[in-house]
Write a structure and sequence with these properties.
By secondary structure, this protein is of the alpha+beta class. The protein has helices at residues 2-5, 15-30, 50-64, 80-87, 91-99, 116-143; strands at 36-39, 45-48, 77-78, 106-108, 111-115. The protein folds into two domains: 2-64, no CATH class; 77-143, Multidrug-efflux Transporter Regulator, Chain: A, Domain 2.
């Protein structure tokens, strides 16, 4: 994930920031799930949409665990190394998948670019297929009385 960590806007929390984020995450978890009301230092109050509340909660939870956090727009374009890092595969394996048409991509000059949305779609489909195969194996083990 080195390529994504080096993206502009990536936050690697300090120990102090991680503690603050963990405290804020716990407080947010206890708050209303409909919307979040935030009071700024100047006294102005904002109401955040429900989707932002969920995103902020997840962001604070990750930071609270000391994890680096990057927000990537769904339409962002990734290099092959960034896409490979996101999928946790080698870059040559990702290039092979691109050449086989498993993930949509395009070229910018001689370089391949992959939309983050397409990488996410591939990952979701792969995970769904993996779960179905695991369930089938578990069912087969049950049918054969293997004690699982």
């Amino acid at each position: 994930m080195q390529g994504l960590i080096e993206r502009p806007g990536t936050v690697i929390p300090s120990e102090y920031d991680a503690d603050l984020a963990a405290t804020a995450s716990r407080a947010l978890a206890r708050a209303s799930k409909d919307s979040l009301h935030v009071r700024l230092e100047g006294g102005e109050e904002l109401t955040l949409p429900k989707a932002v509340t969920r995103l902020l909660s997840h962001l604070l939870m990750e930071m609270g665990q000391g994890n680096a956090v990057t927000i990537i727009p769904i339409h962002a374009e990734l290099t092959t190394q960034e896409a490979a890092d996101f999928l946790n595969v080698s870059r040559p394996h990702l290039v092979k998948m691109l050449n086989e048409g498993k993930i949509v991509h395009h070229r910018v000059g001689t370089h391949r670019r992959v939309r983050f949305e397409d990488v996410c779609a591939y990952k979701d489909a792969f995970e769904k297929e993996r779960r179905a195969k695991m369930e089938a194996l578990a069912q087969e083990a049950q049918d054969l009385g293997m004690g699982y």
